[in-house]
Structure formats: structure tokens, C-alpha cells
Amino acid sequence: MLPVIALVGRPNVGKSTLFNRLTRTRDALVADQPGLTRDRQYGVGRLGPSPYIVIDTGGLSGVREGLDPLMENQVMQAIEEADHLLFLVDGREGRNASDEGIAERLRRTGKPVTLVVNKSENLDQHIAATDFYGLTSNEPVAIAAAHGRGVKPLIEDVLSTLPPATLPEEEDDRIRIAVVGRPNVGKSTLINRLIGEERVVAFDMPGTTRDSIDVPFERDGKKYTLIDTAGVRKRGRVKEAIEKFSIVKTLQAIEGSNVVFLLIDAHEGITEQDAHLAGHLLDSGRALVVVVNKWDGLEQGEREHVKTELKRRLQFLDFARWHFVSALHGSGVGNLIESVNKGYANAMRDMKTSRLTEILEDAVMEHQPPMVRGRRIKMRYAHQGGKNPPIIVIHGNQVDSVPATYKRYLVKRFRSVLHLDGTPLRIEFKSGSNPFHGRKNKLTTRQVQKKKRLMKHVKKSK
Fold first, then answer.
1. pLDDT category, 6, cuts 50, 70, 90?
2. What angle do CA 398, 401, 404 make, to 5 degrees?
């Protein structure tokens, strides 16, 4: 399982900025305005030695009116989910009564807490932290989340105190398939149909599944494990305490899988929650199969409308395989395993450096990269940098300036030539450093004398 870290503190202390820094995304809205974050925001931490789940929360203000009690409830749920708490304070404003009240509440939770003094840029770290001694039992850590100063050592220290991230082992080379989606889209029904027995409880009521369940099975001599997850619903509709862990459990199931089924209800169409979950799946890098369930109950005109909306709202999942099925009656379900095998094979494929470099050269010849400060970006060669998802590393000069549009062009080119459907593809760039930068070539005595003679002729000509 992945460890869970929650960010808590007063409004406008930089929790969302730190969240974006840890996840290497811009998912959390950031502005110099208190109270911008209201709901819990989940993401997978990418900064640090190992993955983890990080939760951004709204600010604890202590006011008992308006939205504040609802926001406080969201924060308390995040605290219960977390294994470690990062308590953020503002180094520029200094210590105040709200910080002391929050510290007292965090002490009562019994959870390990790290006091983080944010916005310490242009301040001496020791001086910035001095004002906050005594709020927690440990020593304050000064950082500048907006600039990244001190953030990496902070998360490395926190992760060293937590159990290492443990992903389920692939016993007997099993392919692990996580089945995710909103409540009541038919996840449990689909699993029962795939394995041919009533293995998990399927009922026409949202929230029947409360925890992630592993279901091993075999098909055509290959071994698989299906992971049934609790439905991820809108946070505002989560009423029961036992449901509040569903998002964490789902993210952990995704990280522990090889392939993911994203289930969508054809009758309800694509919702904001579906699109948000699809974004998490894209960030995870797992092979993906989009399964549109309850397809049998739609008329032809309704089907065309649903397909148009899916293509418009989920166009960033163009690499995924799409299936329109009825889990209840079994129509179309038999083709899912073929897409699982194809997506997994592409995600784990070995690619030769010579072949990748050849594809890169053809792509550059057909469409040159743009000019940067009057110089052309040069891409020299490419090699494989990882699997699940496949990563292609391109070496060259000025590749840090490659625009996003040209990067998308390269992704589509590699995917088309290599037939990498069913899995996302990532491209990374590395600039070659000049080994002679800053070094001056020492002239010999003969070269020095020749230079002097040339300079005499230059002076005479003037």
C-alpha cells in the first residue's frame, strides 16, 4: 500500500502550492487568496524516493459559520485517512493563535506531525523557524514551496519514517487488473461475468462494495487478478464514515495494477467525476481499457450521442481501447481480456535503441523542431527509459525548450509506428552537457608568437 500524507494548516499558508510541487502537477488551484481550496484534493506524490498519496485540504480557520464547518469536516476526514501530517505555517506572518489551536487539535489525533514553516524565501531558515518552536514536539522545517527550496529533503525525511510503499507482488506472472469507476456503474457485475461466478456482491444500490477485493482467475492458460474497488463518488455525497477511504483505496489499487478498467455508465454518460478519475489514470501511466457499461438499454440515436460525448470529453485517452458492453447480459465482455493482454504486452515491451533512433530521425526529417533564439533544436538519438508505462528518452541540444505541441507530435509518431495502443507513452528529454564549457585551450609558444605577428599586421592596416 502507498503511504498517505495530508497537508493541513490555516488558509493561505501554501498547502496547494506544496501539493503541486509534490505531485509535479498543477491540479490544485493556487492564488494569493485565503479559502480557495474547499474540498479534499488527492494526488500521487512524484517527488521523493518512492510514490505516496498526498491530500490537499482547505484551511482551518476556526470560524463556525458559512462554509467553514463543511471545510473543517473535509480536513478532519483527510487527517483520519493520513499516515503522516504536514502542518504548514506562514514564516512571513509568524505565529498566531490559530496556529496554536490547530497544533492542539493535531496533537489529540495521535498522528505523527511535521511542522513546516513555508514562505521562508528571503528569510534566514533558522530565524524563520524560531518563532514556531513548541507548536509540535519535533523541530520546525523551513521551506519555500513556491521555489522548491527544502521541499525534497522534507519529503525524503517524512518518507523515511513511514513503512515503504508496498505494491502487491505479481505471483506467477499474474496480470493485475483494477476495475474503477463511480458507484453503481457495474464493477462487481462485470467481475462476476468475467470469472463466471457470483464472487463479489452485486446489488442495484450505490456503495455496495466497501473495500478493494482481489479476485484471481485464469483464462486460456493465463493467470489474472481482478481488483474490485469501491466506487469513487463526489466528496459532497460521501455520508458514511466507512466510505471516506474509497478514493485512497482506489488510488492504491491503480498503483498496484498493470491494467485498469475504467467503467462508465452509458445511461448517465460522462460526468465530471469520470473525467477527474480518467486524469488520475493518465497520470498513473497504467495500461487502460475504457468500458462503457449498460450499452444494451440504449436506442441507436442515444448511442451515437454517447459516443460523441465520450470522444469530446475524454479525447486525452486516445491511446486506450474502448469497449461497449453489457455486464449484466454478457454482450461484448468476452473481448475485454484480449485488450488487457494487448495493453499489458505494449506496456512491457522492449524497444531497441537503433529502432527508436530511426523513428526519431524520420519524424524530425518530416517535421523539423522549431527554432530557439535563432538556433535549431537538435535531437540526436533515443532509447528506452522504462516500462509500464513505456518511456522514451531523447538526447540532444536545447531539448529543454521543446514546445508541448512538438512533444505531442513525437508521442503520436512513436505510438503510430510502434503500434503502442492500450498504454500511455511518455517522452523525456535530456540535454548533453558540453565537456569543454568553461575550459580555455592553452596556447603553445609558437601559437602565441604567431598571434602576436597577426596582431601587428592588424594594427598596421588600421
1. very high
2. 140
Q: 58 near 35, Cβ under 8 Å?
A: yes
Return the residue matching grid coordinates 601587428: 456
Residue pLDDT, tens place only, 99-140: 888 999 899 999 999 999 998 887 777 777 888 888 888 889
Per the annotation, does 197 bind a ligand? no
Query: Residue 337's CB: how many other CB atoms inside 10 A?
Result: 17
Is residue 145 classed exposed, middle or buried when 0-12, 13-18 and 19+ CB atoms within 10 A define those classes?
buried
Residue 234 counted as an annotated binding residue: no
Whether 168 and 302 have beta carbons less than 8 Å apart is answered as no
What's the alpha-carbon Rg for the chain, to the nearest Å?
27
Query: Annotated binding residue at 210?
Result: no
Residue 236, annotated ligand binder?
no
Per the annotation, does 134 bind a ligand? no
Q: Over the stretch 414-437, which tens digit does the pLDDT of each residue have?
A: 999 999 999 999 999 988 665 556
Q: Determine if residue 148 is labeled as part of a ligand binding site.
A: no
User: Structural domains in the chain?
Assistant: 4-160 (3.40.50.300), 171-347 (3.40.50.300), 349-462 (3.30.300.20)
Whether residue 362 has pLDDT greater than 90: yes
Q: Where does the pLDDT of residue 235 fall: very low under 50, low under 70, confident under 90, or very high at 90 and above?
A: very low
Q: Measured between alpha carbons, how far is residue 77 from residues 6, 17, 28, 39, 310 in Å?
A: 10, 21, 18, 11, 33
Let me know: does 393 contact 384? Beta carbons within 8 Å.
Answer: yes
Strands 378-386 and 375-376: unpaired
User: Binding site annotation covers 182?
Assistant: yes
Please check if 10 is assigned to a binding site.
Answer: yes
CA-based nearest residue to 216, from 169, 281, 278, 277: 169
| CA pair distance 415, 4, nearest whole angstrom | 34
- Is 121 annotated for ligand binding? yes
Is the predicted pLDDT of residue 32 greater than 60, yes or no? no
430 is in an annotated binding site: no
DSSP letter (8 states) at residue 144: B
CA distance 136 to 234: 34
By CB neighbour count within 10 A (0-12 exposed, 13-18 middle, 19+ buried), where does 64 fall?
A: exposed
**First vs last C-alpha separation in the chain:** 78
15 marked as binding residue: yes
Q: Which residues contact 431 (CB under 8 A, 6 or more apart)?
A: 395, 396, 397, 398, 399, 400
Q: Is 187 annotated among the ligand-binding residues?
A: yes
- 8 A C-beta contact, residue 331 and residue 432: no
pLDDT at 376: 83
pLDDT band for position 452 (cuts 50, 70, 90): confident
